[in-house]
Write a structure and sequence with these properties.
Distance between the termini: 174 Å
Number of domains: 2
Order of helices and strands: HHHHEHEEHHEEHEEEEH
Helix content: 40-55%
Radius of gyration: 58 Å
Strand content: 15-25%
Length: 307
């Protein structure tokens, strides 16, 4: 027999080596990976940690959590006081915008409706101290002439002054061509009427007698001159009612009399003369585009003096 070594009873007992299995290495790796995964936190776990670590009361923590939830609810709830203020303010702003749009639309609509305004009497070609309007809306030609003759007979003005007689339809003044047609100047050439400006003046001058005069304007001197020359054979018959010229009896021959050149108050004129070489009716160019028609020479002098 071979000799044996003595046994030390105090020596540590060797630890047996763990048995190595085929999956041991893989299990060790999984255990190491799981050690780095953070545990899932819940309200209960946070609450338990807070009680354990800080010694807080469960009730106090629950109240704090409830207040937090209330604050979050206030941020999103439409019935909260803050959100109600914003909601009301928004409604008021929208209402104000709608009211502004309605007012703007109403203002533009009312502004587009123009109320007719009676215009002031138009300014006269020459200065006049007085003015009177005749509305021809409901008048015939004879009615208008009667109204004009009545004003001339009683102008109610002081001696040496002029009254402007305005012929209108409602609030609109009649243009010169329409006025001539209305009083019966039916023989005035069409080209002549078309050459007239709408502006004209019918007036009466008072000194020791009443005298009617008419000033018409044109747009071209050649048309005015040729038109008056073409109208001459009929001017007296057309205008005799307006100027209250008696063309009966001894004056009946004047209707067939020719117009002639003459000088009236140092102004060149064309006139129909009576047996005494006095003008029955005459016209004179105040300038290239204004014609004066009357029966009285002194009225021509007064009008020219005011020009």
């Amino acid at each position: 027999m071979e000799p044996t070594e003595p046994i030390d009873i105090n020596a540590p007992i060797p630890t047996p080596m763990p048995a190595i299995t085929p999956h041991a290495e893989k299990d060790a790796h999984i255990a190491k990976y799981n050690s780095h995964i953070q545990p899932v936190r819940t309200f209960n776990s946070d609450l338990a940690d807070a009680v354990r670590e800080k010694g807080g009361s469960v009730v106090r923590i629950a109240i704090a959590e409830n207040e937090k939830q209330q604050r979050e609810y206030q941020e999103v709830s439409i019935t909260s006081r803050k959100n109600m203020i914003f909601t009301i303010a928004g409604i008021l702003i929208v209402a104000a915008c709608i009211a502004g749009l309605v007012w703007t639309y109403s203002y533009k609509k009312s502004a587009s409706i123009i109320t007719p305004v009676t215009p002031a009497a138009p300014s006269s070609i020459v200065f006049s101290e007085n003015s009177q309007t005749i509305d021809t809306s409901t008048m015939q030609s004879s009615d208008l002439i009667t109204a004009i003759n009545a004003i001339v007979a009683a102008p109610n003005i002081q001696s040496g002054t002029i009254k402007n007689i305005v012929i209108a339809q409602g609030t609109t003044r009649s243009p010169s061509s329409q006025f001539l047609t209305t009083i019966g100047a039916t023989h005035a050439p069409a080209d002549f009427l078309r050459s007239l400006s709408p502006e004209y003046m019918l007036g009466t001058y008072l000194y020791n007698q009443d005298s009617l005069f008419l000033i018409i304007r044109g747009t071209a001197h050649d048309f005015l001159l040729s038109g008056m020359l073409a109208w001459e054979p009929y001017i007296l018959s057309d205008l005799a009612p307006l100027y209250a010229v008696d063309v009966t009896g001894a004056n009946a021959k004047a209707l067939d009399a020719k117009w002639s050149d003459t000088v009236i108050e140092n102004h060149d004129a064309r006139a129909v003369l009576d047996a005494n070489k006095k003008p029955i009716l005459f016209y004179s160019f105040l300038n290239e585009n204004e014609i004066f028609i009357s029966t009285d020479p002194k009225t021509l002098t007064a009008v020219v003096g005011r020009l």
